[in-house]
Every structure is written in C-alpha cells, then in structure tokens.
Amino acid sequence: MKHSVSRREFMNLVSATLGTGALIQLGSALSLLPMTAQAASLSLATPTPGKGKVVILGAGISGLTVAWELTKAGYDCTVLEASNRAGGRVFTVRSGTVIDEIGNRQVCEWDKEPHMYFNAGAARIPSTHRNLLHYCKELGVELEMFINESKTAYMQDDNMMGGQRIRNAEVSTNVRGFLAELFAKCYTAAQLNEPFTEAESETILGLIRQFGDLDRSKMRYTGSARAGYVSGGFLEHGVQKEMIEIRNLMKSRLIGSTFTANEGETGPMLMQPVGGMDMVVQGFTRKLGDKVIYGAPVVGVQVKEDGVEVAYDHGGSRHSIAADYCFNCIPAHLMTGIPNNYPQDYLASMRSIRRGEAYKSAFQAKTRFWEDEDIYGGISWINAPISQIWYPPHGIHKAKGIILSAYNFGGGMVFTKMSQEERVEAALAQGEKLHPNYRDVVEKPVTIAWHRMNHMLGCSARWGSGFGGWTDEVQTLFDRLQQPVNGRHYFIGDQMAYHGAWQESAIASAHWALKDMDQRVRSMATQA
Amino acid sequence: MFKEISTMKRSFMVLALAGGSLSLPASAEMDTAYYNDHYCTTCHGADGIGSEGVQAPRLAGMEPWYLKRQLEHFRAGMRGMHREDFQGTEMQPMAAKLSDESIAELVAWVGSWEYVPTPVTLEGDAEAGRALYASCSSCHGANGEGSPTLGAPALAGQNDWYLVTQLQNFKAGYRGSAPGDTYGAQMIPMAASLADDTAIRNVVSYINTLGR
C-alpha cells in the first residue's frame, strides 16, 4: 500500500521548510474552499394526500430548485415571478435583451450570434459546486470550459512601473522568483529546527528552485523565460525579458491577484454553459412549464397554522393562492415592503440585511483584438473602479466578441450613481489604460447596476456591517430567518447561505429547506 | 429593537385595479408590452405601503398634488441630485424619464392605493417632541394632517424612518437647496432649528402619536 502524506505531515514539512508565516498562509489557502458534499440526493417523501400544494415566491435558482424537486416528488407547485423572466441574478444579455434597470432601461443591440452574449450575473461554475453540476447534468445543460486566468492578460496600476500595463506572467514570475530566493536564503535556519538528510535537502531546494526558476548554482533569481520573451524563441534564440525588481512591483496591491485569482472557486479552469448562463435557468423552466407564472408580483403573505396564503397581481387583477407550504426567495429588502404577518424577530432579521452593490458592464468588440495580443480568455486586472476586463473564452477566432468592461464586486455604487453616459466614459477611460486603442474597437455598451435592477434592487445579500462582519448577533439573526414560520414558510436563496453570490449557495439553501420540510412531513405522517 | 405598535391587517380581496391601461401582460411572451413606467411598487412596496429594506417611503394615501410636485421636482433635478441624499439619488433617474402624461397616469395609479398605517420603528421622547412640533404645526397642521393651501404634505402616518432621513437631509441642506425648490427651501431653517438627531427623533416620535 502506498503511503500518502497526511495534511498534518505536510503542514509540518512546510512549517519546517518555510517557517510559521508560510504555514499560516498555507493553512488559510487550504481552507479557502467551502467544502461541498457530494451532490445531495434528497429522496423526498411523496406528499400526504390533499396536503401537497406548494407556492414558491420568486423564480431565482433556489425557487426553481424547490419547484423542480417537489414536482418530482409529486407536489403541486406554483412559482410566482414578479418580472417577465426567470433566473433572478442568473441573467444573460444578448441581442434584444431588455435590461430593466429602474430609470435606465436598455435594449441590447449586439449582433445576433450564439457566441455574442454576456453573463451579467452568475458567470462561472467551479468544479466543486457539485449540486449545481448535478442539475446541469440532470437538465441537459451543456457545459464548456471557462478560462478565468490567462498569463498573457495584463495588470495595470498607475502606482506601478509608471502606469504601464504588464503581462500577468511578468508579475507572477518575478514575484515568485523573489519569494523563492527568500525561501532559499531562509533554508539553513529551517534545517536547524528540523534536520533533513542530505537527500531531503536536495529535494526541498530543488522544489524551491523550480518554484521561482532560480539560478542553479547560486540559488538567485535573475529573471526567467516564464515571463515571456522580448523576441525570438523558435527560429532565433529567445531574448528573455529583463527581470523586474520586487520593489517596483510591490507598489501595486494587485500583484497578489496573480496568485489568489487562480485557486479555489476562481481557479484557472472553471465552467460555463454553452450559449449563456441562463441555459441553467432554461433547463429548469423547460421542466416546469406553466407552473411558473410571470409578471406576477407578490402583494401579500399570510402564514396560517396549517398553510400559507399568498396574494399576487397578475393580468390586471389581484389573485390569491392557498398552499400547504411556501418557499420564498424574494430579496429580503423587497419583502419588507410586502404586507405579511411574520413574527417580529423574523422581520427584524430581514430588515438587518443590506443590499449588495455589485456592478458589471460589457461592450461589443468590433474585432477580437485581445487574440492579436496572445490573449484567449482570462482577466486583466486594473487598479481602477472597473477592476477587471474579461475576455470571452468562447467564440475563438470569430469576427467579434463580447468583452466584460467592468466588474466591481465590492464598491459598485461608484458606477450605479452615474448616468449611462458617465458609466460608459469611465469604462472607456479606464479600459484604455489596458488597451490603448480600446475606444476605437468597442461599441454598444450595456451596464448592469444590480442595486437598481427592477425586482432585484441589490446584488448578493450583505449580512453584518460589511465584508467579514459576521458576529454573534448576525449569527442569531441568520439562524432565526433560516427557521421556517409555523413549519410552513421557508425563506431561501443565496441570501440564506453563509457564502452568497453563487448558484451553489442558492441551491444549498433550497436543499436545507426541502430537507427540513420533508422531515416535518414524514413526522406528521407517522403521527397520523 | 423594533417596536411595532400598529399591526398591518390586510385582507386578500380579488380586486381589479382602476383603469384598463394599468394591466400587466398575461404572459412572458408579451415582452415589450411588459415594460412601462409602473416601477413604484418595486421600491415603495406592494400598493405603496413603503419598504424599510429599501428605505422607500409609503406612497399609499399620499396627497396627489404632493406626489405630482415631488415627481416634477425629481424630474427637474430639484430633488435627489445631492450625492449625500442617497435615497433621493435613487429616485431621481426614475423620475427623469417621465413625461407629463406619465406623471399624471402614475399619480392616478398611486392615488388609487388605500392608506395603510405605517409601523412605528422609532423610540424617542414624544413629550419632548410635542414642544418642538409647534413650529411644524403652522404649516403641516396641529394633527400633522397637512395643508394643500400652504403646500405642506401630511406628516401623520408617514414612515418614521423616512421623516427622520428627510429632516436630516433638510438640516444638512441635501434637500431644499436646489434653485426652484421654494417649498424645500422653507424647510431648511425649520429643520435647522432642531438641535441634533435626538431632537429630530423626538419630534418624529411625537408625529407618531398623531395617528391617522
């Protein structure tokens, strides 16, 4: 039997070799990924006769998951969706799409071709999101690879190297070279703490040398071909690029992105559905058919002892629907404006959640100019509010493409507050630092300010007072809202997961609620 | 934390909205027909009851003349242009797109919503607020009922968190400073006479006792 290195042994080795600082960093890197169990098999019980009516509020991914699973189990489901499309923040923009921003309605006028689309919300599927992948398989959603990290993409910061754009590979190669040289210099001290045999030392030093492409004899970093050649390489000897001193690179806080942006959920290889992320949504709605009612905003929720009564507007009149169970993925900040009889502490939890502010925008590119610069997919990083430019990994070598021109996930309000014209000018002015001819090669802008999108008014829910502000008080609020009212009304969505803004989070919350309901149904059946 | 004195009681009647032009499309296929100017309820809540989560105030039961004036002010950039008036800046681009006809139609639609009591969310010294309210009452009425003649809207029954924000905005000059907003300009010195946030909270707590 082969002896595999345990995590503890590995950590000890790293600690001995690289010191405690490295150990701490490695530890957090290893726990970077929230662990997802194997795709859940729900095996829900069939409903008690006469008790199988379910109403689902909102056709976001969590609502669709509930509707699909309960339909399979034999429940009679109705999904009420306020807007005229399903999916919520799973939203793909293509020719003819209406972007229903309040006060800034846009109609997409891009070329009508299968590869000319932009995922304005969810855009990436990590291989660890087992439940979402399970549904993609079950619902026949064809997937392809999404390239998140390209070493030929750029990094730009006005504070670094006179503001010139630098290839990702140049940044990462030179930073790694510096770090490796540092490791090598510290190695003697590490060896004193935990003596290694000569053979072990050779292996470790070899690893360090390989990590940073160090000079073989002196263990020094003097530049590397990994950063790319200035010229030549095939029929002429390659001329290596000059090494860049760490002092010059560390003027930018972005440099760490060349390491963190290619691991875990933002790994270099992710997945996307062929033709747009809304193929996932269509996978569900194809199965659900007319169980989803569009243009049906909810105007009242009353939880009773033995069920839930929901009022909604549709077709110019007011309707009501009585159900045994209700699953609600309406954003919390919108639910506070809908009459209800929720317990006060349940409502207080809803009121405590703040609206997410993420912002994205895109252009139609007249040519795939990035391909002429050796870029096929991946992200360029810039120290400016647009934050990132994404190059589509699909539609390679076609005439045109859709380029993501901004993705501000933390402070999107800077764009949200602008007029459409100001948003576009900001994207052009910042983007041309990465691509000097940008202004001439892009057209037909589309902007998505999630904070102002109709029926949404926010991106992923923010619990607590800010990023990382998860306190005991927040935990209490979260726990309260996760528990159903009277065992009949469940609040779901990525807003009800610790790790929001992923489809997997929405599905996880839906599964939690389904399992809880199923237990109650089974226990009531036993009692009866 | 939140003390809800009034409970919202609403029965779910199947009632047709006034006016055929207000109907929503029956299905997702009617794509272009779906889009109109009827965005109010997304922020302001079902039938305009107000939504604390979005900090959008109650519109149900608001005076049509006041609704019209505020929509026109937002449209003209007389309100909601100051960066610090965050909720105002959310409203402004929406109103900026409206035509006169659209405003008239929206006012008719919003005017059809029946008033519902707003929940009390504020804890302040209503007794201390009573004295402060004296200067408010000359325009807004002893019972906060408002005065169309003086152009002063009703205050009684409005969301207390909204009244607090607006008083703070007037006091800081975020609202009422724009040229042309003569009514808003009158509010600036009045709000300035409230010494601090405690005074603002107290006067609004008193308004909460006026009922409606």
Distance between the termini of chain B: 24 Å
Helical percentage of chain B:
40-55%
Q: Tell me the radius of gyration of chain B.
A: 18 Å
Fraction of residues in β-strands of chain A: 15-25%
Q: What number is the mean pLDDT of chain B?
A: 86
Describe the biggest sheet of chain A?
5 strands, parallel
Strand arrangement across the biggest beta sheet of chain A: 13-2-1-17-25
- Taken from the alpha-carbon principal axes, the silhouette of chain B is globular
Looking at CATH, which topology of the domain at 126-209 in chain B would you report? Cytochrome Bc1 Complex, Chain D, domain 2
Q: Any idea what the CATH superfamily of the domain at 126-209 in chain B is called? A: Cytochrome c-like domain
Distance between the termini of chain A: 54 Å
How is the main sheet of chain B built?
none
CATH class bucket of the largest domain in chain A: Alpha Beta
Unreliable stretches of chain B (pLDDT < 50, length at least 5) are 1-30
Any idea of the CATH class of the domain at 126-209 in chain B? Mainly Alpha
* Residues in helix, % of chain A: 25-40%
